[in-house]
Amino acid sequence: MSRIAILVPGKIHERVLDRLKDRFEIIAVPREGTLALDGEIAGRIRGVAVSGSFPGAWMDQLPHAEVIANFGVGYDGVDVKHAAEKGIVVTNTPDVLNDEVADTAIGLLLSTVRELPRAEAWLRAGNWKPGTAYPLSRFSLKGRHVGLYGLGRIGLEIAKRLEPFKVKISYHTRSRHADVSYDYHPTLRGLADAVDTLIAIVPKTPQTHKTIDADILAALGPDGILVNVGRGWTVDEEALSAALASGALGAAGLDVFYEEPTVPADLLEPTNAVLLPHVASASVPTRNAMADLVADNLIAWFEKGAALTPVPETPQKA
Ligand code: NAP
Ligand code: 8YV
């Protein structure tokens, strides 16, 4: 019996392919503007494993696609509206990366507040000599009031990790959580007015576009800190680089950028920014767990008739 064909456009974690190759026929194609597939092959494809975008036009090339397994909890690259219209189930990789991303968020917060990467660079540059010391960091985490923009799976883990640091914690989401004691703010502006430190961990949606703008940064103020581990889409980077350069904002720690992998020169310039190349989930164990969940979703769909972690926008077929 011929094996079910799974399309893999562009690169994906090697473990996804290792897990799938004995059960499925893998059709690996380069990631280009259109899917380079002839009609016969396209007609055989029933599943997709993808890391990165998967536009609606590609779905239209696959008349028998049933499921698209996305590598990542954020699935903003996959046209889920189009998938839902076509009855295609989209899956993502929730929960298995919560701890890693939350740990990285705390590391990035501390690095930003205490200038740890700059202090290390100072040492490596040979500046530590008898009689010298790295300058005192301007900021401390002690006594800060941290606002979480997003309190979902990862946001909650960040909040739990913040508790032992004895900072006050508040949050903004669209819906209030009945089960947490943190102060709730129904608007982002209200949260930014209340706190001096903002951690963004919201998805890329039309509603979150450049919501962290000049007004929000001004509300955080000259002693304010911004950390973004969600999506670069959420931040107005021009306003951010201007605020960092002028001192209107104290410092920023960013794991994500608007147009990755491009980091605007104006953001590279200010020394009061800590910049990471989207590494929040990027450890071997966590990426392996994400790869397993991609594979397990496809296996569950084709062997048991139901995916493990479908996204809410796409229906799970009976
Ligand atoms: P989640 O459980 O769905 O949580 C999302 C949170 O954002 C919820 O609290 C949600 O609350 C809030 N939210 C959504 N839209 C909002 C809006 N318009 N205004 C205010 N709050 C809003 O997702 P998650 O698993 O925590 O992941 C969050 C995001 O982090 C992912 O979508 C991804 O983009 C990003 N991420 C980045 C990395 C990285 O490597 N840097 C790794 C993993 C995830 P309400 O629905 O009540 O508003
Ligand atoms: C990954 C992420 O870097 O899960 C997400 O939403 O942003 C990260 O864990 C990304 O998905 C890998 O391509």
From TrEMBL:
Source organism superkingdom: Bacteria
GO cellular component terms given for this protein: cytosol
Alphabetical list of Pfam families matching this protein: 2-Hacid_dh, 2-Hacid_dh_C
Keyword NADP assigned: yes
Domain D-isomer specific 2-hydroxyacid dehydrogenase catalytic as annotated: residue spans: 55-311
Keyword Oxidoreductase appears in the UniProt entry: yes
Domain named D-isomer specific 2-hydroxyacid dehydrogenase NAD-binding: residues: 106-280
SUPFAM superfamilies linked: Formate/glycerate dehydrogenase catalytic domain-like, NAD(P)-binding Rossmann-fold domains
GO molecular function, one term: glyoxylate reductase (NADPH) activity
InterPro entries: D-isomer_2-hydroxyacid_DH (IPR050223), D-isomer_2_OHA_DH_cat_dom (IPR006139), D-isomer_DH_NAD-bd (IPR006140), NAD(P)-bd_dom_sf (IPR036291)
Keywords: NAD, NADP, Oxidoreductase
PANTHER family tied to this protein: 2-HYDROXYACID DEHYDROGENASE YGL185C-RELATED, 2-HYDROXYACID DEHYDROGENASE-RELATED
Family: Belongs to the D-isomer specific 2-hydroxyacid dehydrogenase family.
Protein name: 2-hydroxyacid dehydrogenase
Species in which this protein is naturally found: Rhizobium leguminosarum bv. viciae
